[in-house]
Amino acid sequence: MDAPLVCVVDDDDAVRLSIGLLIETLGLPVRSFASALDVLEDSEVLARAHCLVLDVRMPGLSGVGLQERLVRLAHTAPIIFVSGHGDVPMVARAMRDGAFDFLQKPFNEQVLLDRVQEAVQLAARRRRLDARRADIQRRLDTLTLRERDVMEGMVAGRLNKQIAEDLGISMKTVEQHRARVMEKLEADSLAALVRVVVCAERDDS
Amino acid sequence: MKSDDDRWRLAVEASGDALWDWLPAEGRIFSSPRLGELLGLPEPTGAIDWRSHLHPDDRDSVLASLEECLGEAATGFDAEFRLRCRKGRHRWFSARGGVVARDAAGAAERFVCVLRDVTLAREQRETLQASERLWQFALEGHGDALWDWTLDTGMINISPSFRAITGWPDGAALRGNDIWPERIHPEDLRKAMAAFNAHLSGGRPMTEVEFRLLVSDGTYRWVALRGKVMERDALGRPSRMIGTVRDVHDHYLSIAREKRQERELARAAHLIHLGEMASVLSHELNQPLTALRNFSGVALRRLEELGPAGNRIAEPLKMISEQAMRAGDIVHRVRGFVRRGGLKSAPVAMNKVVQSVVRFAEFEARAHAVQLLLQLAEPLPLVNGDQVQLEQVLSNLVKNAIDAMSAVPCSRDLVIRTQVDHDGMVEVAVIDCGEGLAESVRQDPFAPFATTKQDGVGLGLAICRTIIENHGGRMWVESSDAQGTTFCFALPSMPAA
């Protein structure tokens, strides 16, 4: 898994540097940018960013503009906006589009640190979940069509006998498939199997 | 001693008139030589019968009235007619006379008349009448009503259009000394009277004053009066004054309205500048305050690692940090305070904003030989906002565009376009064909204090963008190169009612 990183984007040098130093006191690595466009071009940062602290208004691409691009890229890192302006309508739009928080400059630095930590934890949870889901999906993909049919019967709570009737195969064959499913999905009980399948099917955390 | 006849004849001849003596029964005519001269005959002697010189159009009527005069005892002869003179030209003559002797039966024995060339007098009279008609026509056609005031009798004659304004009945005699005080609005009376007196006493070359005049429906209308003393009595005192009155009511009101609008706009512009200056300034101050607070926070956290040894430094550092926050609060409060006074919110038609700005900008555009072209989408959804602020933004962009083109040698077209963009927002574009933005500001033309103008402070575009963003919209430069620059802004449209 990529090491966590906080990404700070602000065109004001002093603000950018001070936010960066502040976040580093949490022991988190920080990468800072003066331009939002530069972030989009840095694939390493995109892969590792657990939180983005963005200025709302910047020349070129604005913070809100960057948020839009990230949403389109299905990038899920939480975004904390900081702004020197009221920018109320812009903030409303940013929050609607899923921003994690908004702080008006100058802000209480402890509040920013708390929110950054929460954001990073949220991102880490999301990433763990994503990884687990990807792992399960990989294992689900190893099932044969017949094993998949049997698994769906098991999850639906049907008995071996009923599954055999549904699929027009023998009880013994069902039992063999069943053992293969449990093995491939690394589940030691029916309850564990159901959890795995539900986790994979759920759209969101 | 000459006979009486001779004496009179001489008197008449001396006056320049011609004498014509006719004995109808005998058919004898005597005419004075002067008649021949008047007709321009080469040999102005002998008996001349002017009747054979009558203009064809006048002949019948003149001869008929002559016949009438001969027949009836009491009638004198008085006619004006044209007589053919030298080279076939006609001149106007007047003839006055009558039968001087009759026989016992009453038939005319002798007819005498005096003939006078009246061509010149007649021409002058006609010229005068024509010119009078022309003036009357010109003045009345222009909406001016005429008045003619005889001061010693007080009587005043007014033209039909004056009667139309005031509703005074036709024909009724009016006394000027009465109508002015009676008809002029009490608040304007002193002013009007002063204007009359200033002229009547010789202090001013004419009376020229605007006041409210009571009209037929009982309301007051603004009129502009001009008048001048045209005649004076033997002692030089004014005896007759003539002048015009023009209804300027609508004009007066529209000027008053324009003045009010101008004042309103200036006041709003002032407020906006104050508000948006505060807005821009607060942003500029908040940046360093943020850094100050953050750096203090970093220092405090590093001090903690030192343990109790750092406490002596941590205390004042915390105070610095708190003061940074306090300064931030003050900035926010000031800005909120100014903002509350300034912003209005109402449905605004952007095309109306464009037209209103164009009206104000036309003068400047003409002065720089810039042609304003409008491409307005109709219908356009309304936007929610402050019309005056939006006018301010657009007029700022238009002024910039006109400035940008002031150095362009060829045709200078400035296009203002409105349309609905793909998100349903109302988009306004100001497109110039100037030389494009200077390199120094192209990166971020909206940055405060960025300017290429010698006398500019570089807040115009920053303020514009702030206003647009306060309206929930956005503002950007679509393109800028040697072919020109396009500034755009888009505002959320209101849902259709």
Describe this structure in words.
The complex is a heterodimer of chains A (205) and B (497). Chain A is α/β, with parallel strands linked by helices and 205 residues long. Chain A has two domains: 5-128, Response regulator (Rossmann fold); 142-201, Orthogonal Bundle (Arc Repressor Mutant, subunit A). Chain A is 58% helix and 12% strand. Chain A contains ten helices and five strands; from the N terminus they run βαβααβαβαβααααα. Chain A has helices at residues 13-24, 36-40, 43-48, 63-72, 88-96, 109-140, 145-155, 160-167, 171-184, 190-201; strands at residues 5-9, 30-33, 49-55, 79-83, 101-104. The longest helix of chain A is centred in the middle third of the chain and has 32 residues, at 109-140. Chain A is elongated, with a radius of gyration of 23 Å. The mean pLDDT of chain A is 88. With 497 residues, chain B is of the alpha+beta class. The model of chain B has no long low-confidence stretch (mean pLDDT 82). Chains A and B meet through α1 and α5 of A and α8, α9 and α13 of B.
Task: Give the secondary structure arrangement, pairings included.
The complex is a heterodimer of chains A (205) and B (497).
Chain A: E1 5-9, H1 13-24, E2 30-33, H2 36-40, H3 43-48, E3 49-55, H4 63-72, E4 79-83, H5 88-96, E5 101-104, H6 109-140, H7 145-155, H8 160-167, H9 171-184, H10 190-201
Parallel strand pairs in A: 1-2, 1-3, 3-4, 4-5
Chain B: H1 4-15, E1 18-23, E2 28-31, H2 33-39, H3 56-71, E3 77-84, E4 90-102, E5 108-117, H4 119-141, E6 144-150, E7 155-158, H5 160-166, E8 174-175, H6 176-183, H7 186-200, E9 207-214, E10 220-232, E11 238-247, H8 249-305, H9 311-342, E12 346-348, H10 350-367, E13 370-376, E14 383-385, H11 387-404, E15 412-420, E16 426-431, H12 439-442, H13 460-470, E17 474-481, E18 484-491
Parallel strand pairs in B: 13-15
Antiparallel strand pairs in B: 1-2, 1-5, 3-4, 4-5, 6-7, 6-11, 7-8, 9-10, 10-11, 12-14, 15-16, 16-18, 17-18
Helix pairs in contact in B: 8-9, 8-13, 10-11, 11-13
